[in-house]
Amino acid sequence: MRRKSEPKNHMSCELRAVSVNESVCRAIIGVFLAPENPTATELADIKCAVSEAVTNAIVHGYGAGNEGIVYLGAEIYPDRTVRITVRDKGKGIEDIALARRPLYTTDTSGERSGMGFSVMESFTDRLRVLSRPGAGTRITMYKRLS
Asked: What total number of domains does the chain contain?
């Protein structure tokens, strides 16, 4: 989705890759979008997608040590399209197509369902995943508000 116009608002932040910051990212995106008056469903969908992306960065990007930073960015465009980016500089994804398959997980403990990308896709209009092993992952989600 190439944007022809400049965003009318944007934000970015970075947080330590610890599980408590997943809820912080949900709150940040909610506050950032509030002036656009999204519907309750749109806001819940976006927050859920952000939660999944941030959790993936923390759990899969950095793993047990959680030594790293999660980056969150968002833009709102005049046509009410929201672009949200979540990225990490963690271990990256070896096979993106495989990782995007429902129920696929690298978690051997059985705690993860392998539905993160499916959830993100179902709650956004478009999902883009860029990753390089050893260099991290960038998730970009697009959602047009009504």
From this structure: 1
Residue of 16, 80, 100, 112 marked active site: 112
In a domain, 73, yes or no: yes
74 CA to centre of own chain? 10
| pTM: predicted TM-score of the whole model, two decimal places | 0.89
Active-site residue (options: 26, 56, 75, 138): 56
Query: Do residues 82 and 42 make contact, with C-beta atoms less than 8 angstroms apart?
Result: no
Q: Which residue in the list 52, 83, 87, 138 is annotated as catalytic?
A: 52
56 is catalytic: yes
Asked, for residue 1, whether it belongs to a domain, the answer is no
- The model's pLDDT over 69-102, given as tens digits with 9 standing for 90+, comes to 999 999 999 999 999 999 999 999 998 888 887 7
Whether 2 is covered by a domain: the verdict is: no
CATH number of the domain that residue 15 is part of: 3.30.565.10
Assigned domain for 17 exists: yes
**Strand, helix or coil at 96?**
helix
Q: Is 9 among the residues known to form the active site?
A: no
